[in-house]
Design brief:
CATH class of the largest domain: Alpha Beta
CATH topology of the largest domain: Quinone Oxidoreductase, Chain A, domain 1
CATH architecture of the largest domain: Alpha-Beta Complex
Radius of gyration: 20 Å
Number of helices: 10
Helix content: 10-25%
Structural class: alpha/beta
Distance between the termini: 12 Å
Strand content: 25-35%
Order of helices and strands: EEEHEEEHEEHHEHEHEEHEHEHEHE
Length: about 350
């Protein structure tokens, strides 16, 4: 089978590989769709110092199961949690599976396979069956939808809250849609004006106002209530200080943006947090949680993940397709490989 290997910057090659034999608790799947994550783009641009496989937003069909697998069978349509919790850990036994990130996952070196390939071997615990009325491309986005839902839960959004979403990538867009569906009074968002497709979809999904930081900062924007009650940060951590400044008293800022090196360091005014009784909370959806709930959000039409997909491509064209996707800031939202 074919598998894509990447070495930064955008040195992507397809190799013929043979998968190793299944272990007793593993599943062999045929990959039907794999989304291009922001982490994949960083890896392609900067991160991979040697050739490695990549891709973790995966849906597919079960081809083979190990002797101890009971949760899925051959022919099942499955979406993959990139990692799940260890049911034997102290955190899990104490009812906090969300705090356990040491469980089964497919980020395993001896697998030598990831999502941008024809097939994959994964732990059975990572496989979640989905209904036939859902398509592989829309279900491949369950993993980033789970990240968006974890951000929403971390922020503890209440009915009639005013919410600001920083960054309208796929996760920010889905978080904004869920916030509106949960009864937020107003949903504001911040995104660069060049990203026209993202802004258009945000408004279609109920975002009341989009602030373009290349034209007006959120600190200078006149919010209807003076500020907002919740801020969802899917932008780089450097935006957290600004997020805190626009919070109303008692506000909560939840963030998941990641940077490295000096860019990971931020400076905030502790007095702003103290006197306004603000909270800064980290969302880190590891393990990837809430997949059944996310499938319900898609099935019900609450979140139309297919509306996010602006580019589909075959594995054979991955390099040129991703480069074209990256270059088209105006129209690009989400790219998905389809086999």
């Amino acid at each position: 089978m074919k598998a894509a290997y990447v070495k930064a910057p955008f040195d992507i090659t397809l190799k013929d590989i043979v998968l190793r034999p299944l272990k007793e608790s593993e599943v062999h799947i045929q990959i039907k769709a794999c989304g291009v994550c922001g982490h994949d783009l960083i890896l392609m641009r900067y991160g991979a110092t040697e050739q490695q496989q990549f891709g973790h937003e995966v849906s597919g069909i079960v081809l083979e199961t190990g002797s101890l697998v009971r949760n899925v069978k051959i022919g099942d349509r499955v979406v993959l949690e990139s990692g799940t919790f260890d049911r034997f850990s102290n955190n899990s036994r104490n009812g906090r599976v969300d705090l356990d990130n040491k469980g089964p996952n497919f980020w395993i070196k001896d697998n030598d396979n990831m999502g941008f390939a024809g097939e994959m071997i994964v732990p059975c615990e990572c496989c979640i069956v989905f209904d036939e009325h859902l398509d592989f491309d829309q279900v491949a986005l369950v993993e980033p939808l789970g990240v968006a839902l974890d951000l929403i839960k971390t922020a503890d959004i209440k009915i009639m809250n005013d919410v600001l979403v920083l960054g309208l990538g796929p996760i920010g867009l889905m978080a904004a849609r869920i916030a509106k569906a949960m009864g937020a009074r107003k949903v504001y968002a911040s995104e660069l004006s060049v990203c026209e497709a993202r802004i258009e979809l945000a408004k279609k999904w109920g975002v009341d106002t989009v602030i373009c930081p290349d034209k007006e900062t959120i600190e200078n924007f006149k919010f209807e209530r003076g500020g907002v009650d919740r801020v969802l940060v899917t932008a780089p951590p450097s935006t957290i200080a600004s997020a805190l400044k626009v919070c109303n008293v008692g506000g909560i800022v939840a963030f998941l943006g990641i940077s490295y090196g000096p860019d990971s360091m931020i400076t905030i005014d502790s007095n702003t947090i103290h006197f306004n009784k603000l909270q800064l909370r980290a969302s880190h959806a590891s393990p990837a949680l809430y997949f059944p709930e996310c499938l319900d959000l898609i099935s019900s039409g609450t979140v139309d993940t297919r509306a996010l997909i602006t580019k589909r491509f075959p594995l054979e064209t991955i390099r040129d397709s991703v480069l074209a996707f990256e270059a088209d800031k105006k129209n690009s939202i989400k790219a998905v490989m389809m086999n």
